[in-house]
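This section describes the prediction task in plain terms. A model, or a person checking by hand, is given the sequence of a single protein chain and must write out its three-dimensional structure as a string of tokens. No templates, partner chains or ligands are provided. The sample shown here is typical of the held-out split.
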Amino acid sequence: MLRLLLEERGVDVLEAADGEEALRMILDARPDLVLLDGGLPRMDGVAVTRRVREQEPSRRTPIVFLSGHAEPLALSAAFDAGCDDYLVKPDGIGGLNNILERHLGARGKHQLHGG
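The expected answer:
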């Protein structure tokens, strides 16, 4: 559903099956924005975020963490790893337009990575 919402907005979407693939795609494709699921197999979203933040030029790529966990410890772990925003699924998805505008503005077509 998230992919459809993004594509309707004119966003080019890349999608990874696990954290290791997500990391490779982020470093290779250098997307404008990363929507990263916290519960990815093989490497969770926190680990992916840390690894992205260690690499140039991906270090500055905005990362929006998507998680079903709203407790302070989960948010703290994601922000400490270097994410820029945090959306709690499914309730936070309504705020996706605000996040897209904040990080992408009106730059036309964009490429996002969904993991």
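For orientation: The helical segments are 2-8, 19-29, 45-53, 72-81, 96-104.
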